[in-house]
Amino acid sequence: MRAIAAAALLALAGCATTSPDHGPEASLFDPGSDASAAVDAAFANARARGVNVLLVLGANWCHDSRALAGWTRTPRIGTMLAERFETVFVDVGQPQTGAGRNLALAARFGFAEVTGTPLVIVAAPDGRVLNAATAQGWRNAASRSEDAIHAELAGFPLPADTR
Q1: pTM for the full model?
Q2: Under 8 Å CB-to-CB from 27, ≥6 apart: which residues?
Q3: Phi and psi, residue 116, nearest 5°
Q4: Any idea what the Cα angle at residue 31 is, between residues 64 and 48, rounded to 5°?
Q5: C-alpha dihedral (67, 84, 51, 138), degrees to nearest 10
Q6: Distance CA 161, CA 41 (A)
């Protein structure tokens, strides 16, 4: 009986959108989108709104990418992002295996290679990367807490704050 209950629980866990160990997950990386146009639009919108741009270069196959995407859909982080960023999710395929895509976008912001996913770039509306030293470090996004993600992203000053 316990084995049946455990099997049922595991089956349901595979369908859940929230993991008790890692938080929510979402698959927001569209391999068919025009990522370059989406990024250009985000920068135009960011300039008009006086906010920064958050580029999340990841993939739906990647647990850490899905985890970060899921956190962006929670009320707390989602609200903060809507107030402070134009956010774009860019599918990069599997760059570690040579099956990458949209890698020119990473290079556009100074990242010659994507060493892991997600690569999270915070940029000012003028294109200046604000987190060059930490952008590649989001490969552990699934193990970060909501508080840690919120604190790091909310810590970037708005462009108006730096004038």
Answers
A1: 0.83
A2: 60, 66, 69
A3: -175, 165
A4: 85
A5: -30
A6: 22
